[in-house]
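Dear colleague,

Thank you for sharing your sequence with our group. We've completed the structure prediction you requested, and as agreed, I am returning the results in plain text so they can be pasted directly into your records. Please verify that the sequence below matches your submission; if there's any discrepancy, let me know and we will rerun it promptly.
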Amino acid sequence: MADGEDTSQKTTTAGKMELDEANDEEKDQKETKGDTSTKMAVDHDDDEEEEKVADAVPTKDIEEKVSIIVAETQSSSASDRLSGGIERLLYLEKKQRQSEHEANTLFIAKSILDLCRQCGDFNMTVEQIAILSRRRSQFRRVVMRLVQYSMQWLDDDGDGDADWCHNKSEKLKLIHTLIAVTEGKIFVEVERARLTRRLATIKERDEHNVAEACDILQELQIETFGSMRKKEKCDFLLEQFRLNLAKKDFIRAVIVRNKITHRILKNLYELEVKYWNLSLILYYHHERQFLSLAKAYFRLKELLPSTAEQLQALSNGVLALVLAPFGHEQNDLLHRTLAREKKLLEQLPMFRQLLTLLTTKELIEWPLDDALMAMLTAFKFVGVVDEQQSDLMTRLKEKAIEHNVRVVAEYYQRISTKRLATFLAIDVAQTESYVSRMVTDKEIFARINRLNGVIRFKEKQYPNATLNAW
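Please find the predicted structure tokens below.
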């Protein structure tokens, strides 16, 4: 009997375990579906979904009461007719708000603003926006819709009313009021960002105050706005980037630029082109970062559609790469550009010749041939906002001399300083200066013996080092 009971208990336990496993699998499947739906919901913008949902229709009795009050206010000839009508509507709005009827509250609030507009009292309209949004236990949707409704008046073609809020002082007053209303409210952070950008645009365009416009827009931490779409967020960051460049605050511009990821820009063609065009200005004016400048031009070459634009970007990128400090990355990029861009370089023979000179271990004779010198003398980088660019030829000459030093270092272990100066077509003092600078930058190894007038390009080989090399 005991054995039979044990067997039945084991069978029952096994059956329960199978049922538990089946239930667990069903739960896992449900959780997986739930996680998928949650991720899909996260991908959508809550603010955008809320804008798509139409507002609820107010009740008919409220519509009739509001229409009667508005009609009586407009037909009255009393001096305080507007304030009296608004007071009645505010009382009605209070009752609906306390009854937690959102649709009626929103309808009454919009009716109050429309009544102020119809009576032509702009100051009263702005005052009522502030009052309605700060009422006790006001609905979030009511505040958001009032802000969005008021923002339409800032557009020249918002509702066709040419005499309403088209004065600069009125626009500024409305913008400042709406910014104050949206302060500290996450559910209207997108509207606050758009209003702040409008204010910055007015400061820059109308008052020509770039510094103040930059400071105003810089107050927004756009990257923390979760309800803003990625495209609009990138556009805001690029605007901050542009204003910092216009203000010549390059440190802040670098910080803002690093907030934009390339992964997001890949799907936004226009913004990516704008991003790299602004990067050209940053790399050129901030410490002359020619290697990064060349990479920016090469990226633009891949983005631009027409062959003429690609040729222009490639020519600018080649010269920026030539002027970049020597290093493994720069040298590798020189060779890869010459190998990969054969078709486009066939239409740019001068730049192909320049690349060939710098990738061949032969001395470059300076000045170059007349055609190449004429082209380089007239050359100016495109998109860097610098009309003069007077130091390009000086930098190019320095790069040619440094290339010649590296070539000599490849073929000579020891050479007299006068002989090296003859190769470089400069005097002895300049030769020592170039060699010293290249040694400091770790481009070559050299030791200068001034007493004997000899430069040694090869390190001494000690016995232990020779054995280790073997």
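Summary note from our side: The chain has a mean pLDDT of 87.

Kind regards,
the structure core
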